[in-house]
Structure formats: structure tokens, C-alpha cells
Write a structure and sequence with these properties.
Elements: E1 3-9, H1 15-26, E2 31-33, E3 42-49, H2 56-60, E4 64-72, E5 74-76, E6 85-88, H3 96-105, E7 108-112, E8 121-122, E9 125-126, H4 127-132, E10 142-155, E11 162-169, H5 175-185, E12 190-200, E13 203-204, H6 211-220, E14 239-242, H7 244-251, E15 256-257, E16 263-264, E17 272-277, E18 282-289, E19 294-300
Parallel strand pairs: 3-12, 14-17
Antiparallel strand pairs: 1-3, 2-3, 4-11, 4-12, 5-6, 7-10, 8-9, 10-11, 12-13, 14-16, 15-19, 17-18, 18-19
Length: 305
């Protein structure tokens, strides 16, 4: 069984829990997820199954989208409402104009400091392990990209105002930290209340199956037909086509001369390219070797027996 299965992760499950459950249902060990979701977070969790695990890193690179709810006037050690309250103001007054003005400043490349309760490693140890020991260590800021940020709903007529927003962002963006940083820009503490991932790896909620769905599809023998082929999940890479003979050369580990490409999308010198035969056979991912004017394999999908 090979392909990608988009799962709708329920609240209360870790990403590893979901992988373990699907392994038991479909009786396949080789499964990898494409981006950790905290236990309280629901949403899109693409699983790469079988040989599709070879493209996990490329699916992870694609932008992700979320819907988040945040509250002003409260701060916690985890940056969400599951943590210990560090600060709680009696009341906060914020205007819609202030919120819209501040949100606009977060679109583009921004710097984020990963939260202590995160899986980022410092000196070989994950930050959340250090945080559970009561340690707070210095973390280096990282540049992430906010592609879109849209205000969806506001409830400003309460002591601790809340807003709901959608965001499309790059890999490695912490939405909890984004909420805290939005609060800081408004000069008030803030905390994330709720988070749903609405898109990951090009998959949306409409593409997802619940764990119950997966069990039923497996029982009926229909699950394989629901898997997305690995190459479709990385269609952000340019495509090139070669003859059937050259596909066989690729499967043998040989390089493919650039002049032998029959057709191709425009691509940059450092691009990763999806290579196909004339009959649509996916040969794998290739990169350009400029010295020899050829393509060399990065991930070759040699047919299995």
C-alpha cells in the first residue's frame, strides 16, 4: 500500500497517536506524518504510507493554513489556554482599527522565537522536555513567512476580548507564538484559545478522512482507491517528460541528458523536477547537474516487483 492519506486529527490525540492507530487499522508499519499537531489542535494531518514516505520532507515544505482563536489580557507558560496562567489583567480595551492595523504588519517574513513548549531541539534536547523540568533557555529567533492573515470574527465587548483569524504560513510557524506576538504589538498579554489546521500539503478538510472512515474503508476494501499518489502531493515541483527508454535508464540509476526532455515546465537551475515517462509513469524526483547538462536522481521510484 503506497500513497498519501489525509486524516482529520481529532482533539486529544498526538500526531504519533494518529500514526499508531492508522498502522493498526491498515496493518502497514511504514507510515510518516507531515507535520506535528499539538494534542489540543484538530485538523488536516497528511500521512505518507509505504513508498510515499520518501516524499515526506517535500510535502512538509508546502504552506499550511489554520483558523485560530485568541484571547487578550491573559498569558500562560505554554502560550495557549492549556498552560499555567502567568498574567491575567482585569480587563482590556482594544479597537477594531488597532487589531486590523497590527495584523497587517505580520504579513510577509517575520521573526519568531520558538516557544519553550515545542519540539525544537536545543543542545540535543527538546524544548518541551526542558520546560517540564522548569527550565527556560535562550532560543534563537527564526524567520517564517505569513502569506495571508485574515480577520474572521471579533468579540471586543468583553473583559478579555477575543478574535478569530485565518492564516496561511510557511513550515515552522508557531501560531501560539503568533498570537502572543500580536498581543505584544497591541501592548497586552495574549493567549491562543483554539486552533484548527485547515490545509497541509495541499490537502484541505474536504480531502480528509476520520479514523472511523479509515477503519470502514479498510474493512470494505476501498481504502487503496482513496490514497493520493505521492507525485500528486508534490505537484508544486515542475514536471518533465522523457521517452520510455530514458525512464528505464533513470530506474537503473543513470543520468538523463537535458536535451532528451520531450517537454517540461519552466524550471530554475536548482529546481527539483518530477520526471515522467510518455505513458505517465512517475520515475521520481531529479535535480540538474549543470556540469554534465543532465538530470540526476534525488528520489527514484523504481517499480516494485
Amino acid at each position: 500500500m503506497d500513497g498519501i492519506l489525509a486524516v482529520w486529527k481529532p482533539a486529544g490525540w498526538t500526531s504519533h497517536d494518529v500514526v499508531a492507530k492508522v498502522r493498526r487499522i491498515i496493518k502497514v508499519k511504514r507510515i510518516g506524518h507531515t507535520g506535528t499537531l499539538d494534542p489540543d489542535v484538530t485538523g488536516v494531518l497528511p500521512l505518507c504510507i509505504g513508498r510515499a514516505t520518501r516524499v515526506v520532507e517535500y510535502v512538509q515544505e508546502r504552506p499550511k493554513s489554520y483558523e485560530a482563536e485568541m484571547k487578550f489580557g491573559i498569558a500562560t507558560d505554554t502560550e495557549d489556554v492549556s498552560g499555567t496562567v502567568l498574567t491575567e489583567l482585569p480587563s482590556v480595551t482594544i479597537t477594531e482599527d488597532d487589531i486590523r492595523r497590527v495584523l497587517a504588519t505580520f504579513i510577509g517574513d517575520i521573526e519568531q522565537v520558538p516557544p519553550m513548549f515545542s519540539a525544537v531541539k536545543v543542545d540535543g534536547k527538546r524544548l518541551y522536555e526542558l520546560a517540564r523540568e522548569g527550565q527556560v533557555v535562550e532560543r534563537k529567533s527564526r524567520v517564517v513567512t505569513i502569506h495571508k492573515l485574515e480577520l474572521l470574527e471579533m468579540k471586543l465587548d468583553q473583559p478579555h476580548p477575543t478574535i478569530r483569524f485565518s492564516v496561511e504560513c510557511s513550515k515552522g510557524t508557531y501560531i501560539r507564538t503568533l498570537c502572543v506576538d500580536i498581543g505584544q504589538a497591541l501592548h497586552v498579554p495574549a493567549v491562543m484559545v483554539k486552533l484548527t489546521r485547515t490545509m497541509s500539503g495541499g490537502f484541505t478538510e474536504a480531502d480528509c478522512f476520520t479514523l472511523e472512515d479509515i477503519a470502514q474503508l479498510m474493512a470494505s476494501g476501498d481504502l487503496v482507491s482513496k490514497l493520493t499518489p505521492a507525485d500528486q502531493a508534490i505537484d508544486h515541483f515542475p514536471r518533465a517528460t522523457v521517452s520510455s527508454d530514458n525512464v528505464q535508464r533513470a530506474f537503473q540509476g543513470k543520468r538523463i541528458a537535458l536535451h532528451s526532455l520531450l517537454e517540461h515546465d519552466p524550471f530554475e537551475a536548482d529546481a527539483i523536477i518530477r520526471l515522467y515517462g510518455e505513458d505517465g509513469t512517475f520515475a521520481g524526483l531529479f535535480e540538474q547537474d549543470q556540469e554534465t547538462a543532465s538530470l540526476k536522481g534525488v528520489k527514484v521510484f523504481t517499480p516494485t516487483a
